[in-house]
What we know:
Elements (H helix, E strand, L loop, with lengths): L1 E3 L6 H14 L4 E5 L14 H12 L5 E3 L2 H5 L5 H11 L5 E4 L2 H6 L6 H7 E5 L4 H16 L3 E4 L9 H9 L10 H9 L5
Amino acid sequence: MFGGSFNPIHNGHIQLAKAFVNRLCLDKVLIIPTYIPPHKQKDNSVTPDQKLAMCRLAFEKLPLFEVSDIEIKRKGASYTYMTLQELSEIYKGDGLFLITGADMFLTIHEWKHPEIIFSLATVCGVPRNDEDIKSLQKQQDYLSALGAKTEILDANVMTVSSTDIRNKAKNGEDISTLVPRAVENYIKENGLYL
Length: 194
């Protein structure tokens, strides 16, 4: 499971997901855009359905990836523990992995019901840069003491900010190297982030 605001989905997200597929030999990755991210202020400029559409465009030619509307259908705040509970019923007997970026990996113990998350999935994180590795390894030790299974991916993943992309789109700047072409076209055609 790779969840997030994906506002918008960008090439860094895609590289991160692909890197974990290769490292962990995953059968499938569910890309799950949030309905309302509990840790972020609600952004009314893009609807959950538009984020879902952008995710589908970004992954449409990548067969190991499936975009899920599980959190959008549920509505309300998108809590990871609830999503993992649903997925553990759908994929009974399968091992679940929760893919996160560095910031989320470092704060996951503060999320709602982290003990449920830890009981249902291996928590995976990736450093943004070389300085992050030590912080993630320290957090890995802490999470292990809490009973979590963890994986840290040591890979070079493009560091991109959705906030920067929104700002560039608002200012009419080029975002073609930051998002897939289909997502760039969708943003332009729908006048998003203006």
